[in-house]
Fold each of these.
Amino acid sequence: MKILKFGGTSVGSAQSIGTVIDILKKEHGSGEKPVVVLSAMSGVTNLLSAMAEKAANGEDFTAQLAELETRHFEMVRTLLAVQHQNPAFTRLKINFNHLEELLQGVSTLRELTPKTRDLILSYGERCSTLMISKMAAQYFPESLFVDASELIKTDNEFGNAKVNMELTELLIKGFINENPGKMLFVTGFIASNDANQITTLGRGGSDYTAAIFGSALNASEIQIWTDVNGMMTADPRMVKKAFSLPELTYTEAMELSYFGAKVIYPPTMIPAFMKQIPIVIKNTFDVDFEGTVIQHHCKPSNLPIKGISSINDISIINVEGSGMVGKSGFSGRLFSLLAREQINIILITQSSSEHSITFAVSPADSEKARRVIGQEFELELLANKLEQPEIEKELAILAIVGENMKQTPGISGKLFHALGRNGVNVRAIAQGSSEYNISVIISKPDLAKALNAVHDAFFVQLNKTLHAFCLGTGNIGTTLFRQLNEHSEHLQINNGIQVKIAGISNTRKMLFNADGLSLDKWQDELQASNQKADLAGFIAQMKEMNLPNCVFIDNTASPQPIKFYEDIFKSNISVVTCNKIGNSASYDQYRMFRDTARQHGVDFFYETNVGAGLPIIRTLKDLMSSGDRVKRIEAILSGTISFIFNHFKGSANFHDVVKLAQDKGYTEPDPRDDLKGTDFMRKMLILARDAGYEMEATDVHIESMLPKSCLEAATVDDFYKALQEEDAYFTIMKQQAEAEGKALRYIGKLEDGKASITLQLVDENHPFYMMSGSDNIISFTTDRYKDRPLVVKGPGAGAEVTAAGVFADLINVGAN
Ligand code: ADP
Ligand code: ASP
Ligand code: MG
């Protein structure tokens, strides 16, 4: 025999009830007569509870009562043949009349006891089961409505009653024997005490009813039909990437559900475990999906954990004081007290010094817990052996669960790395003695971020999602988005990384979307955005969104964003930038960026600060971190100047070559910004600092290649005129070089802590002689590379290669 339990959403609409009947027909057709356990229609238990509260406060509840009636009556009209409708209406109406009388009573007395509340809540399951049993009877005439409160006997703990299994099993077996050949439709959730007063088994308790019947009848299987594809790696409402688990052990299912995976009610596992009955969680809305089997033995899995669950609102109470040290009876006294007062403790941690005990309770219990502790330990408090218990609110629990954790080292490291990198502060930690779970207490607003970050960290077979916030939509920004769009599939398949652009801003508009902006329509969407650009607002919103694995990308050349870097690092967000201004301003700021990023466990990548996409910064860092020491760096790092000298040959004159470079977009609006060497200087400064030198901009000696008149010209036009007038100066330079068979090169050098940029003539044996286009070249002479330097050479300017460098940095953030 099988038990089939259908949850609230499965019986929440005419369509889903239709599916339920189809499932039953199939089961029935295979010769089975299952026991069917039903929940109240979705939302009904909450509605009843709200009505009870209203009544107790003397408020009007009639609108909700009418809503409840209508929902059930409409269902009867839709799903029952006309000739069967009246008896159903009559039975339901009797229920609603009783309910109304009860609520009136509560309203008159202005008192709602747990006992009355249970009685009120019981109408949800009674109405739904009555109604569905009538509908089923159209197809299965042997259908029989069963009020489980007559069969399941409990203690008097209303709201969360404990079952007397022995008596209950006897009653269920007896009932079955008296009703052979019937197909039972059983109310979930409800039971009764010795005095036959209605009790309930706790919210979500219909699952438990199914297991109780399964155990009493030695069922072959307990099926829990719900609205998701079985037990998943996390709550799919919180973690979009959650996937369903084919198998779980009873312990794993118990731990996951205990820590909030409400897809199954934790006590359900106990009777099933005792009788070794498999529980199968199935989806009413995807009938063919296999779902999850919970059983004793599972196939070995290589997943380090099975799932992550969470309780999204808890409080913790901290009890602290010298009076606890070495007092063996203290915690016994504390926890017996809380048990006596029916305060449910979700989790306990004790510091190794025994100086404090922290435990988590539901927020509704926290004040009561503090009060009773105050009373029980009054003397200790007076004697200052104990401090006043403190309550902390607005917290959540996140737990990772799986039996494999026991054998796998490094699980907690991975958990804390993911939390730390995302700036999630862990308030307390508990590892179950079974080692099947590690649970952490974190602040409630961080829960969604934490769940997603931890899910990404453990389920690496899925893509890790990076949330990027991009500033600047000029050449580089636009090219980056195009590259991301072109490579997104490759990136997911080969790097396991999915990049979502969660925010974009230029100087006019900004736009956000936590699910990722469209990579091909972002321009139109940004244009149409009604949010005006506001840098501080952009940063604030990025922080506010609190997404996991966040990266801020600065694709501007403006000093404005730099002011926010420190704050961004402090918000545990990594920074990728092609903006050189930050790293080339004061040394103190340069240091502070690194220190702050490190302190907050995030990345600061700026490969494109030097040589666009060429791997220069990375090479230098690798050399340094592997213990090498830089003796000398020589470099050509101005793509613009390279271009100019590579074209300043034969009959070409200097003025025309500069103009050509400008027309091709290789120069700054004022070409002198390149020719004066300022940009080159910034790159040399960053390299020198990365090589370990504490240097300021003024420490880089620059030899100007321009005569005074060109430097002093008031406007760009005047500058071009001056270039023409000084033509002889440049021509002599060129002719001298050509006569000697040499090439003109503007070369940066770092040696013995001194940096300079000078105009030099190099002969054909020099590695810098052969250059083309806008090539950059850098040679590192180090302790290891001392005979032949390590050389990196290639195109060092242009949107395509710069964006590619930013892209690579972004992927490196994802890899960490
Ligand atoms: P029913 O009404 O069928 O009893 P519940 O609402 O009690 O259904 O439980 C199903 C819900 O549990 C799902 O809709 C889902 O949002 C939530 N849930 C939380 N954690 C998990 C998880 N790990 N796997 C699947 N569902 C989960
Ligand atoms: N209807 C009850 C509740 O909502 C029991 C259940 O659905 O399992 O808690
Ligand atoms: Mg449920």
Amino acid sequence: MLTWRRSQRQALESVDGAQLPVINSYPPRTAQAPFPPPREFAADEGAAEEFIRLFHAENPSAGPVEHRLREVMSEISMTGTYTHTSEELTFGARVAWRNSARCIGRLYWRSMRVRDRRHVETAEQVADECVGHLREAEQSGRIRPTITVFAPDRPGRPGPKIWNEQLIRYAGYREADGSVLGDPRYVDFTEMVRRWGWRGGAGTPFDVLPLVISAGQGTPKMFEVPEDAVVEVDLVHPSYPWFAEFGLRWHAIPAISNMCLEIGGICYPAAPFNGWYMGTEIGARNLGDADRYNLLEAVAVRLGLDTGHERTLWRDHALVELNVAVLHSFEAAGVTISDHHTESRRFLQHVEREEKAGRVCPADWTWIVPPMSGSATPVFHRYYDEAELSPAFVQHPEAVERGLGRLVN
Ligand code: ARG
């Protein structure tokens, strides 16, 4: 039932490889037509059939598959597309998570809450529902994996798009001396929204960017995320009071918002989803990476380490303390987070369960192994199946460019 997904593979290759579209090679944009013309958004019958068969195989109570298949095929032949039942949508979204080879947190894939908002397609309503998503996903610190699914692409009528990579991300302001205040990853995105009239936030390293949303082929609109919908945690260290002086914080909810949810030949370009954080995503990558907040040296210096020689392992030591601070602070604030040791064990439990259920569990070693202490976690010591299965969350190259603020001249 499960097949390789060629279109996704090609999309990913062009993201990873050198064939990224060069922004300036897009046709020049005018005020009337700022985006590439819509593709034909007809549903692929083969993909539809494969999904409907998968749904019925895993949901025997849904009744005979042949009846539903006839219905879907006749809808496609008449309209070029078809409409998922709400059960199909919920199942499809959960299985897209189950199939996400890069995600270590899939043990709870069945628990994802699916907010069916397929009737929503104006930019204003999408923005509103994104804020509703954030509020519902975070119930007094207990984070619930949640997805909100907006209108799909239909023939001649593309669905809405959220440009931001995540619903909550921090601005990066390029300073006169070339340094960056905030998150360097979003310098271009920040400049883009400023050109479009965003006044900027308070001028801290953690100013939440506005949501940028376009409906169909319309021009994008910007929306501030209300402060009370953004739960954040101030970072302190359990043993080093000076750590608080860095004034660091991070948002509680990682909600990816620019990946397309593909189910049975239908694309839902706006389908933001969240889980909870694993500490290393913040402590090792967001705060530690040299091209992000780049804090290892500052932390090492405060720890009194000799940063003059790599062999003192000052980077490694600073990484550990940063990550201790992240886990401690989230825990103390009552916000869901997990550590990479626990999450690694859970992942292997997930792989085992999937195998017992007779399914392949696709996994990408390079993403599954945590960015610190790899070999101290059990996920390091084995290989995984690398199949690309559908339904899936897919990264379209243009969406990647939009998310980094690079699509507009
Ligand atoms: N690594 C990304 C970040 O730091 C989030 C990716 C999704 N993570 C998750 N735990 N669901 O913002």
